[in-house]
Amino acid sequence: xxxxxxxxxxxxxxxxxxxxxxxxxxxxxxxxxxxxxxxxxxxxxxxxxxxxxxxxxxxxxxxxxxxxxxxxxxxxxxxxxxxxxxxxxxxxxxxxxxxxxxxxxxxxxxxxxxxxxxxxxxxxxxxxxxxxxxxxxxxxxxxxxxxxxxxxxxxxxxxxxxxxxxxxxxxxxxxxxxxxxxxxxxxxxxxxxxxxxxxxxxxxxxxxxxxxxxxxxxxxxxxxxxxxxxxxxxxxxxxxxxxxxxxxxxxxxxxxxxxxxxxxxxxxxxxxxxxxxxxxxxxxxxxxxxxxxxxxxxxxxxxxxxxxxxxxx
Length: 313
Ligand code: GH3
Ligand code: MG
Ligand code: MG
Ligand code: MG
Fold this sequence. Notes:
This protein is of the alpha/beta class.
């Protein structure tokens, strides 16, 4: 793996992955001001199949490091400038409801320090001097647990509808059911129109509230057996079991009619929105889940390019 070393000043070092991250390798983010300790941990982790992202400067422990979505964070408590606990609070705020194991390193190893660390929200506490074999054994366990937790997280945090991971599972299930039942199902990909303008005009928080309300609107206007997932930003997917293209088209056109007449009212602002949707109905065997999504996406693109606020198949 390609790594770049940036010396900002003599004791500040950043280690970043140069190329795209290898998603198969767990990514560990280390914040440690002692460069020799940092290099030792980095080499140990890399020789055990981990990727490492690191910095020595707590003041730069910014979002851009966390945006790489590390699987585990190792944090030295005695960082210059900021205390490890301040950094811990910032990290916790940033990762919000995701589960990322945080391990605190400390040269202080008394009961009070350990209790303070656990109360502050760390998952483990490792005292210096570090036993490297024990350190790796602990990291391995934390990473296994992280993977397990991720497998069970199927709900989108913001909108509380299913997420993309769940969609992948359920769509695979729909496809295999189809082979048995030969009953058609339809996939709709929905994208809010000019949603960026909502953020730009009223702020990101208002944008978030719109997404929450939109998901709720869809959820409360479809059948219990229909499945709604948040596919990405302002894109949602609905799976309609036992529904052909015509049925799904009528349903979505009705949803669009109701939705475009809704008025969002937040503080002094009121506005209305529309969405575009693309449909794909599965009526024959042998099509892969990815191809179904792609076909719905192409129909959506068609709806967008022919004026928006419409449903295409
Ligand atoms: P179009 O009609 O072509 O779809 O235009 P658009 O503005 O909706 O599309 P574009 O893809 O340019 O912008 C999507 C916007 O959605 C940009 C992004 O900031 C915003 N967005 C994505 N996820 C979230 C989110 O979780 N919250 C908020 N508030 N905005 C989000
Ligand atoms: Mg979009
Ligand atoms: Mg778009
Ligand atoms: Mg959009």
